[in-house]
């Protein structure tokens, strides 16, 4: 009886002892009472526990075969009532004797209540003496459970070793390659796609396995924007229709939703995810289904629903899903302006992860931290996070790092990240997914491209956002797409409409950014611009974005000092031939500003400034900036004015680099 209690992995009831010993209840109760009185057994209310000293003495000299039999008997007794404890008993029995009960292993290893890590350990221990029929099945199941338990590296080693051993035929090799590809998907999409393609084309596999392989390959292809994505989806759909499989069906639903998200059809993605992830048959895809559902809620601006879904997912999913859920939680907080909370959670998830941190998850968490640093007015800290982490792998392995490329557009000096910003534009034009989870990313990317003078790419990104707004007509995307379009066309009316739409959402950073851009628009009257700037500063302040708040307040203060200037006096020396815009550009250039600085100051694109400069040269008959400066300095001035540059001294040094830090053109102040 004491040994029966000693092998129990935790507190146990009298019924367990009765079944283990076969003794009648009263006799068992008397013995337990005696052991308890002697202090050898304790009863804390949750069950009986043998003291550590007695446990060691009882089990130390016990023959391994007897120990294995005791654990195996306990496993059979607990299999129906407590599968988790039964699996732990059976694992100890296999480790003691090396022998497994195949039926009991099949029953317990993949049972829902059994922890994935325990189930994987049980299957791996049973592999040593498994016959050919069980070995392949147990090995694939063990790999799946290792991934669920957050032990992906062990899964890779297990599958790679079995492939190297080459114990079975081509069909089994194809299945191993497929599982290996599925594990690689979170780290190297190019390797995963290659292994999955070889798995389904190299050797014939069963119809169920083929459907699953196609569904996994399609989901990866949709995520990275592969040109074969639609063809793979059709082929996987046909395979699922011919031979339905719950696991392949769940993976196919995720693939189709991912494809819909890449096209900007968020409502369609939501409808495609009508899968019950709590079913035991789809246990391996539960985390992917629920994470994609939360991503859809973020893309729709349903931030409260996303918060509720995240709380439930933390409770229901294995700990290995923790980093993915943490990344989604941080993106939600970033979208609603909970900046300090987002930074704290991202830091914790990176320093003490609850599971494996893939490249995509790490990129998202670092991007959250970098954006918070930018909004707090600490660009150097944000640059260190980006430049110290980002590597530039070739496509499609570059896709998981899209969040880091997107956040580079927040830099007040976009020239520092020209290559990253242009790569981010390519990401967005290939797939809308990168900008869907955080609404302010799209318009900000457009603004950075305009500051770089890349009007073509800015138009392409704005067009993609317009397609999202057309396919997902919710206030969030009407506002974000309208904001981007207004930046490209420099249309204050479109900016006003974007602000109205964003007011109906919880996306406070996106609203504040739109208000600040409305305030900086050169075609907005001073009173309206001042009101918009003050509201933007107040919003930034409530979010704790002190860096953005200071820029908005500085801009509003400049507007307070702005007055409509009288009509310009006719200029001599041929300067009277210049338009008002050309005269303003000429004045800045003559004072020593670069074309890039003029573009930022006057809220124009680089190419527009260059076009005006050529017109100025043609009208004045000059060929260089030096000639322009001399001509401008020699122009007649009104009485009482002093010669000298009218541009602030800081403009000739390192620029503040953000258009938000440069004063608005006086011509549009009225």
Q: What does it look like?
A:
- It is a single chain.
- This protein is mainly α and 670 residues long.
- Among the domains are: 318-560, Serine Threonine Protein Phosphatase 5, Tetratricopeptide repeat (Alpha Horseshoe), CATH 1.25.40; 575-668, Arc Repressor Mutant, subunit A, CATH 1.10.10.
- The chain is built from 36 helices and two strands.
- β1 and β2 form a beta hairpin.
- α19 (322-336) packs parallel to α21, α28 runs parallel beside α30 (508-520) and α33 packs across α35.
Order of strands, widest sheet: 1-2
Which percent bin holds the helix content?
Answer: 55-70%
The major pleated sheet works out as: 2 strands, antiparallel
Number of strands: 2
The N- to C-terminal Cα distance equals: 94 Å
Radius of gyration: 33 Å
**Count the helices. How many?**
36
Poorly predicted residue ranges: 563-573, 639-670
Any idea what the shape is? elongated
- Looking at the structure, the CATH topology of the domain at 318-560 is Serine Threonine Protein Phosphatase 5, Tetratricopeptide repeat
Percent of residues in beta strands: under 5%
CATH architecture of the domain at 318-560: Alpha Horseshoe
CATH class of the domain at 318-560: Mainly Alpha
Oligomer: single chain
Average per-residue pLDDT, rounded, comes to 86
Structural classification:
mainly alpha
